[in-house]
Every structure is written in C-alpha cells, then in structure tokens.
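TASK: fixed-backbone design
INPUT:
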C-alpha cells in the first residue's frame, strides 16, 4: 500500500488554473479536490494499492454542477513510484491528467 509522507503539504498548491482545496486520505486512495477561479470542482484520485508495480491517478472527464455526469469516462495515468516521491512531480502528473480534458 502506498504511503506518501506529508501528503497534506499539497493543500493549496496550484495545478495550472486549479488549486488543491482539499487533501483527504482514505484506506484505498488519496483524494484531491481541485477548485478553479470560477468555483468549479474536480476530484483527483490516487489509488494506494498498486496494479502490478504502478499506481493509478484518475479523475472523471466530465462534470456538471461539480458532479460527474452519468456518462463520464475516467481519465487515467499509471505512475511508477518514483513519480510520487516529490510533491512537484505529483503536481506535474496531475497537470498532465487534466490536460487530457
């Protein structure tokens, strides 16, 4: 199971036009709530259990009123553990995930 020390230090970090407004740790994932200047929200999930030797970073591709649409499709990136060691590298991975939107 993935454990990232000081994960809460990502709180208020900027990710492009988004800002991390909440960092939550649950048994199976790290949850990041991002907020943009117009108040839209998106949740990014980093799974703590590996698939093979990689960890899944994902979010839904479409929202309305800050809720994923029923037709939303997950956007995924598979990350090696070295992509999770430094906050700035994880932030860059989140940016890359959001660029697909």
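OUTPUT:
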């Amino acid at each position: 199971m993935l454990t990232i020390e000081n994960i809460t230090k990502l709180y208020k970090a900027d990710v492009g036009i988004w800002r991390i407004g909440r960092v939550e740790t649950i048994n199976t994932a790290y949850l990041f709530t991002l907020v943009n200047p117009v108040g839209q929200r998106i949740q990014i999930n980093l799974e703590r259990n590996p698939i093979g030797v990689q960890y899944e970073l994902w979010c839904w591709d479409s929202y309305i009123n800050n809720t994923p649409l029923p037709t939303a499709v997950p956007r995924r990136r598979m990350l090696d553990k070295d992509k999770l060691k430094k906050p700035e590298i994880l932030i860059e991975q989140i940016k890359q995930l959001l660029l697909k939107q």
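COMMENT: The two ends are 29 Å apart (CA to CA).
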